[in-house]
Amino acid sequence: MNYAKIKKTDVANGKGIRVSLFVSGCTRGCKGCFNREAWDFACGKPWDEVAERELMEALAPAYIRGLSVLGGEPFEPQNAGTVAEIIEHVRARFPQKDIWCYTGGVYESELCVREKTEPAVARILDNIDVLVDGPYIEELRNLRLEFRGSENQRILDLRKLRGNDKIFQ
Ligand code: SF4
After folding, report:
1. 71 lines ligand 1 (CB under 6 A)
2. For each of the chain's 169 residues, which pLDDT tens digit applies?
3. How remote is the CA of residue 147 from the centroid of ligand 1, in Å?
4. What is the pTM of this model?
């Protein structure tokens, strides 16, 4: 998996001051996409140990509330395995911080179906706190929305939805 950047203080993509990881590659093709350069799976640099160390160091300060993973598309089949691993490592190292993940897919109709046959999708869904879901729909664009671009997109509390309170301390 390639990634475009690690943004070390971000207040636009989730609650509080966060670290945001922008992964590369997306095949959804939403009209009016805000980040077209991230459609290319070869954009940015390969994810490696150096990048993981940089991410962990960025997450360490007490003022950082958590990690947001966006793209591109974290749930693309060729990204999901690496994203699942990153999220599990962050969850283990910083159990007190929250993890948000963005997707152009819809939770019930796409991700809940895919997780039955794609273990990486299930691992991501089982280890994040919040999923911001749904494609960007230009006709539903609303600049007043927090943390998302169009009115169809939802901020889902996956801890409640999936009954996964046990993973949070
Ligand atoms: S899912 Fe996100 S990155 Fe992909 S095309 Fe839609 S808005 Fe752009």
Report:
1. yes
2. 999 999 999 999 999 999 999 999 999 999 999 889 999 999 999 999 999 999 999 999 999 999 999 999 999 999 999 999 999 999 999 999 999 999 999 999 999 999 999 999 999 999 999 999 999 999 999 999 999 999 999 999 998 988 865 444 3
3. 14
4. 0.95
Dihedral angle sign, alpha carbons of residues 142, 128, 92, 115? negative
Q: Quick one: tokens of 7? A: 């943004």
Please report the DSSP string for 93-141 in residue order: H-TTSEEEEE-SS-IIIIIHHHTTT-HHHHHHHHH-SEEEES---GGGB
Number of domains within the chain? 1
Instruction: State which residues form the domain around 124.
Output: 2-167
Pocket test for ligand 1, best of 23, 35, 133, 153 (most atoms within 8 A of CB): 35
Identify the residue whose tokens are 């300060």. Answer: 61
